Amino acid sequence: MNPSATCTRCGLQDESFLHCIRDYEFSRSLWNHIGFNNLDFFSNLDVYDWLKLGATCSNDLLFSAGLWWSWRHRNLMCLNNETWSLSRISFHIRAMVETFSNCFSPASNEGSIDRYIKWNHDNYPCTILNVDGSCPDSPVRSGFGGIIINTFGHYLVGFSGFIQGSSDILLAELYAIYKGLLLAKDMNIDELVCYSDSLHSVNLIRGPHAKFHTHAVLIQDIKELLSQTNASLYHTLREGNQCADFFAKLGASSDADYLIHASTPDGVRDLLRNDAMRTFFLRE
């Protein structure tokens, strides 16, 4: 508890609930940035009425996520001396809205519905890293790979590698994420979304620390990389991860521990063109 009620961020007003979440200069800018710019939104001085107004409006999920991240950012500023950009917080807010929407979507009682997948299916406006692992059955080998593409689908760099003496697909998937994030960090990429089609890997990394897991050290290294950079990790389906699959198979078929491909290798250009054109593929 602070000995003073004064807001530690502005030093001018008491840190009431509404000042902290809504009326502080950065908080107000955040609400405006995600679309809450009606004067009535900021004029209500009763906390209960304001929360009720937001929770029952047409953008109720966006409002709920905005509340959470406005509070999160206040704590980041006050406790960690961190200030995030509006676009970065907005990115996390919209990702949370997507999670809310998926959780509360009613289950369909109809038969199976065709699902179409594309690269960067959530249309995140930043640099995209796609990664994958590969373990072909014959001969038994394992490799990893990935590709970094800008928001318009233009190739920046690719990488691939061979894992000596292993046929562990989870290790290949995790190693692809690790090497991809490390490469993006070395390239000083400002904002990054990493897609992996290994849901198991994504859940291990986003979940609590699993100190007794076989790959605990690698998982922790990935967690630390994510915490040190403006990068987010999401699951994608394999139909939206075809370029990364190409580089992972390239790694499994070679004997090079790690290669960076500054230019596009033969065979990947058609796949890259599909991504740039946002081509939809039927989910198998």
Average pLDDT, rounded to a whole number, is: 89
Order of helices and strands: HHHHHHEEEEHEHHEHEHE
> Which architecture of the largest domain per CATH?
2-Layer Sandwich
User: Any idea how many domains?
Assistant: 2
Per CATH, the class of the largest domain reads Alpha Beta
What's the number of helices? 11
Which structural category do the helix and sheet elements fall into?
Answer: alpha/beta
Give the N-to-C terminal Cα separation: 54 Å
Helix percent reads 40-55%
Range of strand content: 5-15%
Uncertain runs are: none
* Assembly state of the chains shown: single chain
Largest sheet: 6 strands, mixed
Which fold name corresponds to the CATH topology of the largest domain?
Nucleotidyltransferase, domain 5
Side by side, the strands of the main sheet go 6-5-2-3-4-7
Q: What characteristic shape results from the CA principal axes?
A: elongated
What is the name of the CATH superfamily of the largest domain?
Ribonuclease H-like superfamily/Ribonuclease H
Radius of gyration: 22 Å
Strand element count: 8
Features:
284 residues, alpha/beta, Nucleotidyltransferase, domain 5, 2 domains, 11 helices, 8 strands, 45% helix, elongated
Q: What does it look like?
A:
The structure is a single chain. By secondary structure, this protein is α/β, with parallel strands linked by helices. It has two domains: 17-104, no CATH class; 127-282, Ribonuclease H-like superfamily/Ribonuclease H (Nucleotidyltransferase, domain 5, 2-Layer Sandwich), CATH 3.30.420. Helix content is 45%, strand content 14%. The chain contains eleven helices and eight strands. It has helices at residues 17-23, 25-33, 39-43, 47-55, 60-80, 86-104, 169-186, 199-206, 216-228, 242-252, 269-276; strands at residues 116-117, 127-134, 143-149, 155-162, 192-196, 231-235, 259-261, 281-282. The strands form two sheets. A six-stranded mixed beta sheet has the order 6-5-2-3-4-7, with helices on both faces. It has a two-stranded antiparallel sheet with strand order 1-8. A hairpin with a 5-residue loop joins strand 3 and strand 4. Helix 1 packs across helix 2 (25-33). The longest helix is centred in the first third of the chain and has 21 residues, at 60-80. The protein starts with 16 loop residues before the first helix and ends with a strand. The model has no long low-confidence stretch (mean pLDDT 89).
